[in-house]
Structure formats: C-alpha cells, structure tokens
Design a protein that fits this description.
The protein has 324 residues and is an alpha/beta fold. Helix content is 38%, strand content 20%.
C-alpha cells in the first residue's frame, strides 16, 4: 500500500468516525440514561482553571510522595468534608487533592432532592468564595467549567477507584522524574504522515522490531506457538510492534508485557496533551519499555474499530518494522 493510499484511507476512517456526533468536553458530559438523584457512588474530578498548582506541593521520595496542601488546598478539603452537612444523603468515601486538580468519591445513600451536579456546584462555589477571600479579589476564577463524573456500575470498580486516588501522587512524581517518557507528541512525522505518541520514542530506533499480526482463525495451540516465538525474540532484544486487535495479538502482547519486554502499540485514536498511560501500563512507561502511536486524531468519545482501521494499523505496524 502506497503512502497516498494510506493517507486517503486514513481520511476515510476519520470521516467515518466523526459521524458519532460533536465532541463534548468530559467536564460537561452527563449520562442521558442515568438518574443523578438516586442511590449511587460517583467519582468526581475537577480541575483548576489554567491547571495552576494552587492546592499543594508534591513532597517526599518518588516512590512514596504526598501532597502538602496550601491554604487554598486545605480550604478545598474543608469544603469537600462539609458536603454531608448540607446533604445528609451524601457521604465521603475517598479524597485526593493534587496540585492542580481534585478527585473525590461520593456515596449517595438515599434519594437526593437535587441533581448530583447541584451538590458539586455548591462545593465549587464554596471553594471559589474561599479563594476570593484569600486573594481579596471578588472576580478571581478558581475552577475550570463543569466537572467530570464516573458512575459506579460493576463489582470491584470502587476498589480500583480508591487505588487510583491513593496512587495519584506517586504517578505524578514518576512523570516529573521521567518527563521524556510521559511526554505527548501530537505531530510526530513518521512514514510520510503524522502520528501522535506517548512513551519512549527511542524504541523506534531499536535495531530489531517485529510485528505481531495474528488471524482470528488461529487455534489456541497456534497462538501459544507464536507467543513462545515472540517471547524468545523479545528476550534477544527485539521490540514487539502490534495494534493488538485479534485475540492472538492481545495474548502475545500481554505475555510480552508481563515478561517485562518493550512494546510499541498502535492505537485507534490519538492523545491529548495531558494524556496519561493506562494504570496497568504506567510503571512500564516509566521504565522506558512502552510507546503508543496513533495516526488518527484525538477524540474524547469512543471510536469504533472499523475493518479499514484494522488493515491500516497493521500496515503501519509492518512499515514501522521494515522501513524505519
């Protein structure tokens, strides 16, 4: 497939993906099918306007850091803890104050008289009032518009949320300790087009890169044979490259990752500037053994995986291994 054919196919895929509707900021999206007054658990995220580090300072060793609150950060914590005084139907499960944003988990144990958004709005207003008092400026803006909410749906989800909040300072410390390994590039020239990337770009310079591409018709035994082959080559220094689409590809990628070998993964959508690696890949990213690449634009909504996209991602994987 020529570069021009790949470019036209990419344009076709992005046009097809755009039919899902206009992009809406995650801070403004709400579930149309969910009743935000009923009994439920929510993970709420808010960000400081301009991502200014107003709430605290990260201190301590990289492996066990913590955030020391500023006066404004303490005011935010006090406002959050005070929510049950205004809404006795709500209790606080967990809190995570970061220098430029805030996470909190709320449990609505009884039907609320108002939308959860009203609870969050009151919290934000209380924080803004404290901020303006500290600055003696009644026009100062503290928060970005809106908030992000995640709704508890499944068993084990709450434990994952709590672990995520507890680990947030450590992840920030790791990003600061290894900025090059967590930097997002949104216009990386590669193979005659542009990619967005996250992770260790030096993996593209490794002398041996091997593509993993598996038919969905492979038997479990055949997948195991291929897994053994790629693990052996990775142990010899090869970097494994794949979009990880078919069951066989996913099994091999998982085995390579678990064994601690480097990976280049091709993704179906790009990255935004503040993108972070998935939790289970975070440490691998800090170790320099992960690189994510995408030839497509960033979208904050789900992107369906089209057949054309699968073919194109596998073609890019082939070219990364053979042409760079």
């Amino acid at each position: 497939m020529t570069e021009e054919e790949l470019r036209l196919k990419r344009q076709k895929i992005e046009k097809k993906a755009s039919y899902a509707g206009p992009t809406v900021s995650s801070m403004l999206r709400r579930s149309d099918s969910h009743d935000y007054t009923r009994r439920c658990i929510y993970l709420i995220t808010l960000t400081v306007s301009g991502r200014r580090p107003l709430f605290g300072e990260l201190q301590g060793p990289v492996g066990q850091p913590h955030v020391v609150p500023t006066a404004m950060g303490q005011a935010v914590l006090d406002q959050w803890k005070g929510i049950p005084q205004f809404y006795p139907q709500v209790s606080i499960i967990a809190t995570c104050l970061m220098p430029d944003h805030f996470h909190g988990i709320l449990f609505v144990s009884e039907t609320l008289p108002v939308h959860v958004g009203q609870v969050v709005r009151g919290f934000k207003q209380g924080c803004t009032k404290a901020y303006r008092a500290l600055l003696s400026d009644q026009t100062a803006q503290l928060w970005d518009k809106g908030y992000n909410d995640r709704i508890l749906h499944e068993r084990g989800q709450l434990d994952r949320w709590v672990d995520y909040l507890r680990d947030n300072p450590r992840r920030l410390a790791m990003k600061r300790a290894h900025p090059d390994l967590f930097r997002v590039t949104t216009a990386l020239p590669l193979l005659g087009t542009t990619f967005s990337s996250l992770g260790n770009l030096f993996l593209l310079k490794k002398p041996c890169r091997l593509q993993v591409q598996c038919s969905r018709r492979l038997t479990p035994g055949q997948i195991e044979e291929r897994k053994a082959f790629f693990l052996a080559r990775a142990a010899e220094g090869a970097v494994i490259v794949s979009p990880s689409i078919s069951p066989g590809e996913r099994a091999i990628v998982a085995a390579v990752y678990e064994a601690g070998y480097p990976l280049i993964l091709l993704m179906k959508k790009g990255f935004h500037q503040l993108q972070k690696p998935p939790k289970h890949f975070f440490d691998a990213c800090a170790e320099g053994r992960m690189l994510w690449l995408s030839p497509y634009a960033y979208s904050n909504r789900p992107v369906p995986l089209f057949r054309e996209m699968c073919l194109q991602l596998n073609e890019y994987a082939r070219r990364i291994c053979e042409e760079i």
